[in-house]
Amino acid sequence: MSCMSSTDRPLLNRRLAAFGTTIFAEMSALAVRTGAINLGQGFPDTDGPEEIREAAVRALRDGRGNQYPPGPGVPELRTAVAEHQRRWYGLSYDPDSEVLVTAGATEAIAAALLALLEPGDEVVALEPYYDSYAACIAMAGGTRVPVTLRPDAASGTYHLDVDELRAAVTDRTRLILLNTPHNPTGTVLTREELAAVAELACERDLIVVTDEVYEHLVFGAGHTPLATFPGMRERTVTISSAGKTFSFTGWKVGWVTAAPPLVAAVRSAKQFLTFVSSGPFQYAVAEALRLPDSYFEGLRADLLAKRDLLADGLRDAGFGVFRPSGTYFITTDIRPLGESDGFAFCRSLPERCGVVAIPNAVFYDHQDQGAPFVRFAFCKRQDVLLEAVTRLKGLAAE
């Protein structure tokens, strides 16, 4: 007999009522059930550098990190993060007061929003956006204000309407949540777009939280952190992680770099989420961040070849293709295939041709804007991508 009556309030609090099982869990389960090739969830199907995996084993065996590591992160990793920011971007951070280690970038985003928002604060975010953004804003009691990145079929890219961004900021806006390189569109914001964001943030006295986890997965001029722009170092919370750069997504090692007051605020929330995590892996990631330039160059070259393989295959299969400038995702338009509903298309695709993708509409507040777009991940072995392309070309024969 149930002890709940029909008058009992729902178990899930109202801030999360709109968030059920993530689309990634749904589509990955569909891939397992059907035996389809999973190009939906963004995780590599091979491990990262062997020497970094062995560094983790060595830390485990040496007893480094097997007990609670320091709350802000092990000193070796905090120092390596600071060195990384200086090496690649010329940004100087104090490892003790301006670096915080987190359980992946997802925790860093959650901690930043929980720390910096009061109920009712508005958060301007670029739509489509990674699904945890919406959930974290909701948990913090904030209000999402989406600014939509617009697709340009002629150029095969997405762009930010700076005037629309400016119009979205009100007296209730607390912060801008930025993601570049951008998931799911693969857009890398230009210097002009970033400069406009920086100018607006300074003018309206806003904090900017930047998710830069794909910083080394850029196929053009390279990544430019917002914190490098005038006036932005003191108002930017920069977030990154090891998972995407080193292909160890299960380790869940991320970090925050920011001015001391911002790091202190984020740390106050973070300590009551995971407290600490990933002890031995932190030592390994410290070594990974010091890998030579050749590693990062090789990573980009490998992913560029895979991007082009899948993009060309998708085009040949009849999709409209937005060739990404960064990340390891390709957004496609299914309308040339005579389709318009990304949800229905992705749920039928495994049975139709044995491939799993993600409907972009899940990344939008305005779901109609994302309805005809579907995302594929190309961070897989080349033979897997070749087989997926072969299967997808069968759609043209239907």
| Distance between the amino and carboxyl termini | 51 Å
Poorly predicted ranges: none
| Largest sheet: number of strands, sense, barrel closure | 7 strands, mixed
Rounded mean pLDDT score: 94
What is the count of structural domains? 2
Report the count of strand segments: 15
Please provide the ordered H/E string of secondary-structure elements: HEHHEHEHEEEHEHEEHEHHHEEHEEHEH
Morphology call: globular
Any idea what the radius of gyration is?
A: 21 Å
Beta percentage is 15-25%
**CATH fold descriptor of the largest domain:** Aspartate Aminotransferase, domain 2
Task: Please give the CATH architecture of the largest domain.
Answer: 3-Layer(aba) Sandwich
Q: What is the top-level CATH class of the largest domain? A: Alpha Beta
What share of residues is helical?
Answer: 25-40%
Biggest sheet: strand arrangement: 2-10-9-8-7-3-4
Quick summary of this structure?
Helices cover 40% and strands 16% of the residues. The chain is of the alpha/beta class. Helix 4 packs parallel to helix 5.
Features:
398 residues, alpha/beta, Aspartate Aminotransferase, domain 1, Aspartate Aminotransferase, domain 2, 2 domains, 7-stranded mixed beta sheet, 4-stranded antiparallel beta sheet, 14 helices, 15 strands, globular
Please tell me about this protein's structure:
- The chain has 398 residues and is of the alpha/beta class.
- A hairpin with a 4-residue loop joins strand 5 (150-152) and strand 6.
- The protein folds into two domains: 14-41 and 294-397, Aspartate Aminotransferase, domain 1; 50-288, Type I PLP-dependent aspartate aminotransferase-like (Major domain) (Aspartate Aminotransferase, domain 2).
- 40% of the residues lie in helices and 16% in strands.
